[in-house]
Amino acid sequence: MDFGPTTQSSKADLTNAFERVLDSGKFVLGPEVKKFEQDFADFCGTKYAAGLANGTCSLHVVFKALGIEEGDEVITAPNSFIATAAAIAQVRAKPVFVDTNLDFNINPEAIEAAITPRTKAIVPVHLTGRVAKMDQILKIAKKHNLIVIEDSAQSVGAEFNGKRAGSFGDAASFSFHPLKNLHAFGDAGIITSNRLEVVEKLNILKNHGLIDRSTCSQWGLNCRLDEMQAAFLGVQLPQLEAWTEERRKIAKFYNETLGKVVIVPTEENNEKHVYQTYVIRSDRRDELKEYLNSKGVEALVHYPVPIHLQPAAKNLNYKNGDFPVVEKLSKEILSLPLYPGMPFEFQEIVTSLILDFHCRK
Amino acid sequence: MDFKVPYNYLPQQFSEHQLFFDLWKPVLSSGEFTLGPFVENYEKKFAEYMGSKYCIATNNGTDALILALKALGIQKGDEVITPCNSFYATTGAIVAVGATPVFTDVDERYQIDINDLKSLINTKTKMILPVHWAGASPDMFKIQEIAKENDLFVLEDACMAIGGKIKGKRPGTFSEIGAFSMHPLKSLNVAGDGGMVVTDDDDLYKWMKKYRNHGMSDRNTIEFWGVNMRIQPLQAVIANYFLDYVDNFIKKRNNNAKYLDSLLSDLNGFVKVPERPEGFLETFSLYMLLVSDRDSLIQYLIDNGVEAKIHYPLPLHLQPASTNMGLNTRALKKAEQQADELITIPIHQYLNSSHMEIVSELIHKFYEGKK
Questions:
Q1: Contact A310 B191 (CB under 8 A)
Q2: Residue A69 pLDDT > 80
Q3: Whose CA, among A127, A179, A359, B289, lies 20 to 30 Å from B165?
Q4: Where are any strands of DSSP class E within A77-168?
């Protein structure tokens, strides 16, 4: 059976998983979810993991499990995907945005400045595949007694000081959206944590609040990871490190080739960047994007309008100029195609077009 | 244990692996794994099947209910009247949007008690959320009448009622919005979670489509805070396939149900078959009877290879989730009595008259000597 162009996993292994689940007739919260949860926790270096339907509802449910609610403030970065702030709004808490550094990740000093008596949690986003400055963030959290939930949707396998994304905070949320480094064939997500009581609570919440078939301990939701997707993720996970190495190799080639004409991403010695997106910066971004698109290269902007300037955030009363770094970055960033198995000649097309663009003018 | 009359038929239903893989092939090769053409095709087909203008497919039936409640503006401070004998998700959805569930008692057919419903309407009431419980239906004409008189929204929980009919009209199409589930053991099912809403209202449709997908009006514009409750395209193509068979499934379930009804008709005093009024086509998502000495009967059936169940032993208003929240805990006598007497017998489309005869013989044997 052919599983299509989005995966490099073994067809036989995927077929086997597919047949195993169909034969079991167990499609909801069965052994595949359980096994993948343990495998993924082991991968991240946490004690527990809990599968969820996607990386948005995972944030929503973990916020609920951690008791974040109306009246609470949650500090996060405004340059993430919308889901981070939306999940905060969904539990009726208030998203409080702070600026980032030029590495796209939340600025720890800005966090400290934004803390008020109502602050309940910090949600650093490990954007583009790079872990935020977790040593400083955890120190601030400890000092002010705040919960830390890592939004690791873009950073599965990324490392900081020898630890993997998802293993730093009270809990961490991951997405296995089809365009993520570790991906399902549809939506899927997971929460990692070392706190048993949090994982137990969110496992109840994600399944209608049921503690057994007949007893509902609190009114809950349905945001379960699919058994079939869990089986596929279980096949894909052992490949992830090899895929990450491929990404890093392509990134290295881009860095070396493009570093003279645009600003390329960096990596410190204590970091391992997994390049979920490979983002360059250019002061002629729009022109460059149009040029690449016109030559058939799918360069994208993640994201052109920061969350604090979105119509959805109107009630939070932010304005242009509130977060100078994020706003500057939003005008300069451009994501280049980069994926495991990307043929070298494709990589060269991308780099030579960008070099051409800069030579011509 | 292996049951002679099993409740779960999924290994049988999904035994032809190649068939399902062929359904998945175009999705896998296109890489369209979030919304996209496969989901749209299915939505169009389901809307047509229902006779509705629009369908929006969601990740599950709970999400479908939440989506509808949000779309109709139900929020904190609002009361929503709903029966106390549904699956947990109905109330879960009401609480998820911040509103207060107000439980009614039920009638002899296990459906929302319409007189009780009327008595509960007050100035805070915003919506009636009737459930087509077990795949049977309450009197939706009457409920609509009450809603109109009192200026209330109606949201139908038709999660168990895909394929049913009330006087020629589909459950879920009597109201502003109908919500459905395609959980593996529903009349129309997928190999995981899935659900949808239907509506005829253009504005509700547009809003719900955005809310389902992060509140996005385009890739770069987030109009309002939304969520991710998208159906999986791999599930949408399975639903699309089974939708062609659902009427046939319902027919087989009805044949089994009516046959078992007749086989048990001489057990008056021990077994009470609910009334099956003219004009109601039930889906028999659950075939339920009221029986005496219920717990012993269940054990006896299970010991003899019939996978009988209870839906559910504790009504919603008595669940810890309700008492913890301080919800109204007035006695709902009929529902409480039914919870002690209800039994669910498998009568699904992979069973036939000989299975019904096995069940009937066992039940007769159980009550023998007790007459």
A1: no
A2: yes
A3: B289
A4: 94-97, 119-123, 147-151, 159-160, 163-164
Which residues are bridge partners to A123 per DSSP?
Answer: A76
**Phi, psi values for residue A138, rounded to 5°:** -65, -35
| Whether the bond into A278 is cis, omega within 30 of 0 | no
Interstrand relation of B271-272 and B287-291 (parallel, antiparallel or unpaired): antiparallel
Confidence of residue B371 (pLDDT cuts 50, 70, 90): low
**Pairwise CB contact (< 8 Å): B25 & A2:** yes
Contact yes or no for A209 and B11 at CB 8 A: no
B224: DSSP letter: S
Buried b (16+ CB within 10 A) or exposed e, B26-42: ebbeebbbbbeebbeeb
List Cβ neighbours of A195 (8 Å cut-off, separation of 6 or more): A48, A170, A171
Q: Which of B30, B59, B184 sits opposite A53 (nearest CB)?
A: B59
Q: Is it true that the peptide bond before A303 is cis, omega within 30 degrees of 0?
A: yes
8 A C-beta contact, residue B63 and residue B195: yes
Nearest CA-CA partner of A164 in A142, A195, A194: A194
Task: Return the pLDDT at B1.
Answer: 67
Please tell me the total number of residues recorded for chain B in this structure.
371
Q: If you search the block for the tokens 């399944």, which residue do you land on?
A: A207
ipTM: 0.96
A198: which residues sit within 8 A by CB, 6+ positions away? A62, A65, A66, A170, A171
* A206 contacts in chain B (CB < 8 Å): none
Start-to-end CA distance of chain A, whole Å, equals 50
pLDDT, position B328: 74
A361 pLDDT higher than 80: no
DSSP3 helix / strand / coil % (chain A, rounded to 5):
40, 15, 40
Q: What is the DSSP-derived secondary structure letter of residue A311? A: G
Smallest CA-to-CA distance from A196 within A60, A52, A67, A48 is with A48
Q: Are the CB atoms for A157 and A164 separated by under 8 Å?
A: yes
Percent over 70 (pLDDT), chain B? 99
The pTM (predicted TM-score) of the whole model is 0.97
What is the Cα–Cα distance from B146 to B148, expressed in whole angstroms? 5
Q: Flag if B88 and A224 touch (Cβ within 8 Å).
A: no
Query: A263, A281 in Cβ contact below 8 A?
Result: yes
Q: Quick check: A217 contacting B, CB < 8 Å?
A: yes
User: Which among B100, B188, B317, B89 has a CA at the least distance from the CA of A206?
Assistant: B89
If we measure between CA atoms, which residue out of A278, A303, A257, A346 comes closest to residue A84?
A: A303
Helical segments of B72-183, H only: 88-96, 114-120, 140-150
| pLDDT averaged over every residue in chain A | 97
